[in-house]
Write a structure and sequence with these properties.
CATH superfamily of the largest domain in chain A: Thiamin diphosphate (ThDP)-binding fold, Pyr/PP domains
Bound molecules: thiamine diphosphate, iron/sulfur cluster
Oligomer: heterodimer
CATH superfamily of chain B: Thiamin diphosphate (ThDP)-binding fold, Pyr/PP domains
Strand content of chain A: 15-25%
CATH architecture of chain B: 3-Layer(aba) Sandwich
Order of helices and strands of chain A: EHEHEHEHEEHEHEHEHEEHEEHEHEHH
Radius of gyration of chain A: 21 Å
Shape of chain B: globular
Number of strands of chain B: 8
Number of domains of chain B: 1
Number of helices of chain B: 10
CATH architecture of the largest domain in chain A: 3-Layer(aba) Sandwich
Largest sheet of chain B: 8 strands, mixed
Helix content of chain B: 25-40%
Largest sheet of chain A: 8 strands, mixed
Number of helices of chain A: 13
Strand content of chain B: 15-25%
Shape of chain A: globular
């Protein structure tokens, strides 16, 4: 049965069905509905909700819940995620799973509460200290808000690492029909947790390794997990890339607009396709390189001044030109303006191949 | 607080109006706090350029935009830390910090305690509405047990913070409480706070008419009792203040709970500022000899 709900609410319902039994968070627009939905639904599922005094407290409450073996969720937006970075580094260092939803708003500073994608760097590159990564999932629909939240809990457990669901204010607020799985899931009790049973009495959760060799070994172990994720956890969606000469790259809500751009460009005779990274870390670098054998240029669109575009450039290693179009401040680019830009770039690279109407445009 | 110089232009309510009009909901308690703050500046004849109004984030924290003084709109919960930086950079400024109960006692709770402990010479006005206004109605650290909000749909299960007791315990040297509807009384408290040399805390009941339907003007009116009406009340008695701070319910004291004078403030204790020249107005150059000394000296 499909249900028409907001993206933010879908995250909570999906989390509960995925066995999440603790939510700690602090209100912030445009993520507050996640906390509010958690306050409403979690107690009914036998879980706890607590409104923390700050995001610093919230992420450390997650640290505690995760260490005790409970699936836990928090949600915030830009400024709140910035405050959580220290805790995220500790969670990764102590190899604890948890899920963090970041419903991005405009920045820097207080910025505004309109949708943006300016948190890419702080979330995907890890705004905290040390050699760690967070796995990052980028939904582009309310259905994916649900599906990727569920996946996030599984990946968090599998890799014993924080996983971030990175969406924007638009996807959080919009309403779409969602299909939830018929059955709820019961996560296994982790063997490493401090869960008050005799069997786990030797378990120690820590991120301190005073001896350089010990710390290096620990960091190498984390690194091995990340390499494994890069091999096994990459997800992306390809849309009409088979014969694309121009590949658009965008994630989240931007990708939805880019799909419309692809159709319109194709109607005008331009061989355009779309690559939508679903995992931002691990990044679909191999797929981009594969596409570079046939595509002649990569056009990246973000609701930022250009953050993910750096990963596209790194992936392509100069094989093909990479160009960027961005809007920020809470402005969502329209399909028309992107199409204009795409045609302009196409004209720049292949004046001879430009469609007829370009000549008089 | 800092010394007040003779006014260059008359300070009036009209010329203390900010560049933007308040965006508060009609009837919001914060209007009364802004008006009382402006009146206090007028009555003390403090020039706009002698004051910096610093806030965090919240409906109440939008206040610096609505008043013609220097203004800073800073991070959620961090205004007191920013204010400490401003005060040490230019201690001749009157530093006034404004914000909400969430901003000050929740996310800013640790700065609240430590800024009082340091006795930083500033006036801290909290518009205490027992709710999160700007984020549209979640529980705040001063929300009462049982209160239903968007984030506590089944009622708050946590004991609220007691700002008066906390301030007294943390070492604030001026502790008062007002209500936005009692303009004369509130203006008087803010004037005392502005003139106090040290950390002055004024908690103001400032009803959120949109999201708090429990703690309304009607709820407060019969309950608030002015300490000033009790001739026997001695605001220099910390224990008496602590006792008053415990009262809530049928009778809620407002007024000046506590004041201790004669204690040095943070900048007063700072040896570098003994010559009374603000850091911001000093010649930043250092003598070449001294520079060489630093470089050559070993720790
Ligand atoms: C780090 C961070 N977290 C959350 C927010 C969202 N936020 C803005 S104001 C506010 C609380 C508002 O309540 P209060 O401080 O009591 O002020 P009021 O609006 O009631 O005057 C919150 C949670 C933010 N701006 N920054
Ligand atoms: S929401 Fe409440 S606190 Fe904010 S302006 Fe309106 S009445 Fe005032």
């Amino acid at each position: 049965m499909k249900q028409l709900i907001k993206g933010n609410e879908a995250i909570v319902k999906s989390a509960i069905l995925a066995g999440c039994r603790a939510f700690y968070g602090y209100p912030i627009t445009p993520a507050s509905e996640i906390a509010e939905a958690a306050a409403l639904y979690l107690p009914r599922a036998g879980g706890v909700f607590l409104q923390a005094e700050s995001e610093v407290a919230a992420i450390n409450m997650l640290y505690g819940a995760a260490a005790a073996g409970v699936r836990a969720l928090t949600a915030s937006s830009g400024p709140g995620i910035s405050l959580m970075q220290e805790g995220i580094s500790y969670l990764a260092g102590a190899e604890l799973p948890c899920v963090i939803a970041d419903i991005m708003r405009g920045g820097p500073g207080l910025g505004n509460i309109a949708p943006e994608q300016g948190d890419y760097n702080q979330v995907v590159k890890g705004g905290g200290h040390g050699n760690y990564r967070t796995l990052v999932l980028a939904p582009d629909s309310v259905q994916e808000m649900a599906d990727l939240t569920r996946l996030a809990f599984d990946l968090a457990d599998e890799y014993r690492n924080p996983v971030v669901v990175l969406a924007d204010g638009y996807t959080g607020q919009m309403m779409e029909p969602v299909e939830f799985p018929a059955a709820a899931m019961l996560p296994r009790r982790p063997a490493w947790a401090v869960d008050g049973t005799a069997a786990t009495r030797r378990n120690l959760i820590t991120s301190i390794y005073l001896e350089p060799d010990q710390l290096e070994a620990h960091v190498r172990k984390l690194e091995t997990k990340y390499r494994r994720a890069e091999q096994q956890a990459v997800r992306f969606e390809s849309h009409r890339t088979e014969d694309a000469e121009i590949v658009l790259v965008g994630y989240g809500i931007v990708a939805r607009i880019l799909k419309a751009v692809v159709e319109q460009a194709r109607a005008q005779g331009l061989a355009v396709g779309l690559l939508r990274p679903i995992t931002l870390y691990p990044f679909p670098a191999a797929e981009l390189r594969r596409l570079s054998r046939q595509a002649l240029a990569f056009l990246v669109v973000e609701m930022s001044t250009g953050q993910m575009v750096e990963d596209v450039r790194l992936a392509l290693e100069g094989r093909r030109p990479v160009e960027f179009y961005g809007r920020c401040g809470g402005n969502v680019p329209s399909a028309e303006e992107i199409l204009r830009w795409v045609r302009e770039r196409a004209d720049h690279y292949w004046p001879a191949f430009a469609p007829e109407e370009m000549a008089d445009a | 607080m800092a010394t007040t110089t003779v006014e260059a232009v008359p300070v009036t309510m009209a010329n203390l109006k900010g560049r933007v009009d308040p965006d508060w909901c009609p009837g919001c308690g914060d209007f009364g706090v802004l008006a009382a703050y402006q009146k206090a500046l007028v009555e003390l004849r403090i020039q706009p350029h002698q004051v910096v109004t610093i806030s965090g984030i919240g409906c109440s924290s939008n206040l610096p935009g609505f008043i013609h003084t220097y203004g800073m709109h800073t991070l959620h919960g961090r205004s007191l830390a920013v204010a400490t930086g401003v005060k040490l950079a230019n201690h001749h400024l009157h530093v006034v910090v404004t914000g909400g109960d969430g901003d000050g006692f929740g996310i800013g709770g640790n700065h609240f305690v430590h800024t009082m402990r340091r006795n930083v010479d500033l006036l801290y006005i909290v518009m205490d509405n027992q709710i999160y206004g700007l984020t549209t109605g979640q529980t705040s650290p001063t929300s009462r047990v049982g209160m239903k909000t968007k984030s506590m749909p089944f009622g708050n299960i946590e004991e609220p913070v007691n700002p008066m007791a906390l301030a007294l315990a943390a070492g604030a040297t001026f502790v008062a409480r007002g209500i936005s509807s009692e303009q004369k009384h509130l203006t008087e408290l803010l004037k005392q706070g502005l003139m106090h040399k040290g950390f002055a805390f004024v908690d103001v009941f400032s009803p959120c008419v949109t999201y708090n339907h429990d703690n309304t003007y009607q709820w407060f009116r019969p309950r608030v009792k002015k300490l000033e009406d009790d001739p026997g009340y001695d605001p220099s008695n910390w224990y008496a203040a602590m006792e008053k701070a415990q009262m809530w319910g049928e009778e809620i004291p407002i007024g000046r709970f506590f004041q201790r004078t004669g204690l040095p403030s943070l900048h007063g204790n700072e040896p570098i500022l003994a010559d009374d020249v603000p850091l911001a107005h000093r010649d930043p150059r250092i003598a070449p000899d001294l520079a060489r000394q630093f470089v050559e000296e070993l720790m």
